[in-house]
Amino acid sequence: MPSRKFADGEVVMGRWPGSVLYYEVQVTSYDDVAHLYTVKYKDGTELALKESDIRSQSSFKHRKSQSSSSSPSRRSSSRSRSRSRSPGRPAKGRRRSASQSREHKDDKKKTIQETSLALAVLVLFKPSENNTKRYNGEPESTEKNDTSCIILEQKLKPDLEIKRVLEQYSLRSRKDDKKTEEIFSEKKTFVPLKPIEKVPSKTKELEFGGRIGTFMLVFLLPATVFYLLLMCKQDDPSLLNFPALPALESLWDWRVFGVFLLWFFLQAVFYLLPVGKVVEGLPLSNGRKLQYRINGFYAFILTAAAIGVLLYFQFELRYLYDHFMQFAVSAAAFSLALSIYLYVRSLKAPEEELALGGNSGYFIYDFFTGHELNPRIGSFDLKYFCELRPGLLGWVVINLAMLLAEMKIHNLSMPSLSMILVNSFQLLYVVDALWNEEAILTTMDITHDGFGFMLAFGDLVWVPFVYSLQAFYLVGHPITITWPVAAAITVLNCVGYYIFRSANSQKNNFRRNPTDPKLANLKFIPTATGKGLLVTGWWGFVRHPNYLGDIVMALAWSLPCGFNHILPYFYVIYFICLLVHREARDEHHCKQKYGLAWERYCQRVPYRIFPYIY
């Protein structure tokens, strides 16, 4: 194993990937497995570089001083010679013949021409001040509406002919050239090296309160779900009226658990059907792209058909309402077992497949946040499947069961207006998510977070049993609202949905294809990564307009439940806290990723979620 050349904290000169430019960087860490140095540029950008792309400052400055001479190669060679005269060189004071003089002049002229050509090539490729800023994370200008700069940055590679000229007319000293010749002379054959994949380093910054916080959340999240469901069952669901704890044996039913397993594996069968297009996700840290089959909307249609068949044969969906707590316990037990399986299998996963945020080395933290980024069984992606299928579709089925339970319990010929609004708004949200399924591939859940207890419990328990809280509340606490109030709530939900959908569409279309002519009017700030930060449209209004639309819709879902109790508004309160926390995580990651370009974006768009407020 080669020895390490540069120490942590050492200030060196690092080559920017894909260019001939060197910048001052600081070594932060070294990976013994991949033999890569993690270096930090002045703008905060962190990259992994090979040792061959790093040079010491002393050698860099030495070469820089040499370049001021018109013939650095001659000067370096003269310094390397001894004071004794070579046999072929005439002694001092001896006159040269005419032919020797002409040859000397020709050699000198050729050397000057070669050096001038090399300097011309270097000047040609020397970046201007603005270009240097762009490589350091600063845009050449504050705003652009031409996507060509991103395309050029992505496709720009050293030209082979220019590289050949630079190698032929190099300004390096003959001593360096001699070392290069010795290296190549040792191996007569050239063997191409495999590209070194970037290996995720250990997670240094712990989120969610670190080990103590994640340990508490493992118990707090299930307790919150059970508390909310018990409160909704009470006649007076006030916060001060703490519900009586049920007997433990009443919380478990093997038949209910079997129904839950049947539902889970039925959705898995729908997921594996060879229908729908196959798309590639965003590049992973090692450059690889995973493939995903987009057939969530087909699964929704098949699920609706299956529910219709059950209703046709007089199957009582009220069974869900009567055993709601037992279904929640079954889902929690399954998510815990799934989380244990995910963590055990992640211990054997390759290093490059681990999540950047869940590789701390602490069991409870990695168990909660997810140790492996994209766990798969063959082509079956466990995280992607759970993100949309069992929980999201289960949410819709639970709402329908609550609607039917309300009609039967209160002897109604049709559901109440409040129940219709809640079911309609949330059905629209789920159908939109499934119709735009491909958009989830760019979210933090897929690209950054590992699959552990946090996402497993969230997808299988929190989403179906907490998001349906309004419908569950209305079954035991019916609310009557007028048509004008219903119309106003509908308008509010439509406004939130429009903000949510249009903002997400702008972002996803721009990420997928920034050269789309439909996006030519969008302005953006270019970054050193080759991506752009939108500063027009919804993304020039606030930094997270999709979160703003989400919160507006969440409020519209709670308003049909009236103002008798705060319990139906738990969802919107929780959602605001969740999105504010997620926004803080986004800010931290984007600042590390985009450097000074993100700071300029924050100056251009000062408000995070709520305009003129936050």
Automatic annotation (TrEMBL):
One of its GO terms (molecular function) is DNA binding. Its EC number is 1.3.1.70. InterPro entries: ERG24_DHCR-like, Lamin-B_rcpt_of_tudor, Sterol_reductase_CS, Tudor. Keywords: Cholesterol biosynthesis, Cholesterol metabolism, Cytoplasm, DNA-binding, Endoplasmic reticulum, Lipid biosynthesis, Lipid metabolism, Membrane, Nucleus, Oxidoreductase, Phosphoprotein, Receptor, Steroid biosynthesis, Steroid metabolism, Sterol biosynthesis, Sterol metabolism, Transmembrane, Transmembrane helix. Pfam families: ERG4_ERG24, LBR_tudor. PROSITE patterns: STEROL_REDUCT_1 (PS01017), STEROL_REDUCT_2 (PS01018). Gene3D superfamilies: 1.20.120.1630, 2.30.30.140. Pathway: Steroid biosynthesis; cholesterol biosynthesis. It is an enzyme of class 1 (oxidoreductase). Residues 76-97 have a biased composition (Basic residues). It is a multi-pass membrane protein. The chain crosses the membrane at residues 212-231, 251-273, 294-313, 325-344, 455-475, 481-500, 521-542, 562-581. Its main location: cytoplasm. GO terms for biological process: cholesterol biosynthetic process. Residues 66-75 have a biased composition (Low complexity). Residues 4-62 form the Tudor domain. Residues 53-112 are annotated as: Disordered. It is found in: Cytoplasm; Endoplasmic reticulum membrane; Nucleus inner membrane. It comes from the Eukaryota. Residues 101-112 have a biased composition (Basic and acidic residues). It catalyses: 4,4-dimethyl-5alpha-cholesta-8,24-dien-3beta-ol + NADP(+) = 4,4-dimethyl-5alpha-cholesta-8,14,24-trien-3beta-ol + NADPH + H(+); 4,4-dimethyl-8,14-cholestadien-3beta-ol + NADPH + H(+) = 4,4-dimethyl-5alpha-cholest-8-en-3beta-ol + NADP(+); 5alpha-cholest-8,14-dien-3beta-ol + NADPH + H(+) = 5alpha-cholest-8-en-3beta-ol + NADP(+). GO terms for cellular component: endoplasmic reticulum membrane; nuclear inner membrane. Belongs to the ERG4/ERG24 family. PANTHER family: DELTA(14)-STEROL REDUCTASE, DELTA(14)-STEROL REDUCTASE LBR. This is Delta(14)-sterol reductase LBR. It comes from Daphoenositta chrysoptera.
